[in-house]
Amino acid sequence: MIRFVLTRLLRAFITIFAVVTFAFVVLRMSGDPAQVMLGPDVPQDAVDAFRKAWGLDQPLWMQYLAYVKAIFTGDFGVSMRDKASAMQLVMERIPATLQLTIPALVLKLLIGIPAGVYAALHRQSAIDRGVILLAIFGFTIPSFVMGLLLVLIFSVILGVLPSGGHDTWMHGLLPTITMSIGGIGILARFSRSAMIEVMGQPYIRTASAKGLKWPDVVWSHALPNAAVPIVTIVGFMVGSLIAGAVVVESIFSWPGIGRLLVVSVANRDLAVVQCILLMIAATMVISNLIVDLLYGWLDPRLRAQTAH
Fold this sequence. Notes:
Its main location: membrane. GO terms for molecular function: dipeptide transmembrane transporter activity. It holds the Pfam family BPD_transp_1_N. Keywords: Cell membrane, Membrane, Transmembrane, Transmembrane helix, Transport. By secondary structure, the chain is mostly helical. Helices cover 79% and strands 0% of the residues.
């Protein structure tokens, strides 16, 4: 078990380090922050002074070493735009993002998994076909299209919900629904497939032949064995909560991390962009690490394979 955990931790560290390196290189190649911050009509000496002040005049490898060293000391840089700590700016936006992502995740779990399980237990019925149709509709439509569609219906046509802002709880309804619809469809589809596969296994027929009540067969035998693929999808959703908020927060003018990322990329605010990307990568890696550990708990065969 110790080797199993250490292997996953090493993979997590390598992944985060690779993301940090990739983000650093891509951001430096995407454009000169001095030109974006100062504008095209600023004299060259002002541009040179700006680059020197922020260390952009140094060779790329020296900038990279300084960046990695700063991260390991807990220094995530200073915003070129606001002259404030990049981590502080990001932390100030986290509560707003969590106001959308946590309710959206809860809706995905409470609706998607039960819908998929119920459809699997009633195959070929009208409910099963309806769940499949709605699931396909949910996860095939991009979030920006879904968001605009909801704004058109509930804000423009019906006029019952605000189209943007952050003033009241009603402002969070449309972005939360937008973020949850795709996940509900994905969870419903995978839960249905996992349950159908498990229900066809011999041990399910054996449990029924022994006289166990059908609800006991489903809860005690089918659901635990169908949990592994479902846990995979849930782990991915938890890891992509922040990344998934980028488009939705931009559509609904929600002052969270996603909108901050869009603004910072447009302004070439390197420290803020790097901090957000590092946070997104860490969230996804940690969630995948937890999923791997849950795999070892749900299926001891994986621990045995890792141990050899």
